[in-house]
User: Fold Secreted protein from Apiospora aurea.
Amino acid sequence: MTRSQNTALVFVAVALLFLFWKNSAADSYPLTGSPALSSVMASNLEVSIRNAGEHKLALGVTNKGDKPLTLISWNSPLDPIALKLGLVEFVPSGSSEPVQINTIQVRRKMPPESDSLVTIKPGEKKENVLEVGEPIVPLEKLKGEMTVRCQGTWMGVWNADGFKTEELESIGSAQETQFGDFKAELESVEF
Assistant:
């Protein structure tokens, strides 16, 4: 091969790599190719944590938007097994490391059943009260003040007015499905 042929091959290879990278980045955000624009509705969901009594936490989700939203409760603050999934962490006061808790990995049958869907009206708050204790969270490690954090990613959020259950068949590729991260923190909790 001549030098000009080698240069042409390198140019083609670099161009193909760039196109592949650009397309794979767009596929990561199926709605628009942009993480900021793909989570507009999801950003209207505000997550909160409150102490709900002895060894109990309430994880709440409030719809701060002006439209009702439907979401999948899986891997969210409204998931009944949120503690077991590791969505909540407990950080002792004065430490940067969270308490090690026993978590599980779950495989769920797709598409989600209707009992896994939650609709929240504008201004409405839904809560999930969780029991904090053995065998998931070792109580002997929860002595003194703690900071409690809840964080993760919504698996799917839709405008409830136009939501069709058929969209559950194509989560990730449906135009109306939105995703986004959530995070909440509660300081100075004592168990």
Observations:
- The beta strands are 45-51, 56-63, 69-72, 88-92, 117-120, 125-131, 145-159, 178-190.
- The CA atoms of residues 9 and 15 lie 10 Å apart.
- Confidence is low (pLDDT under 50) at residues 5-38.
- The chain has one helix and eight strands.
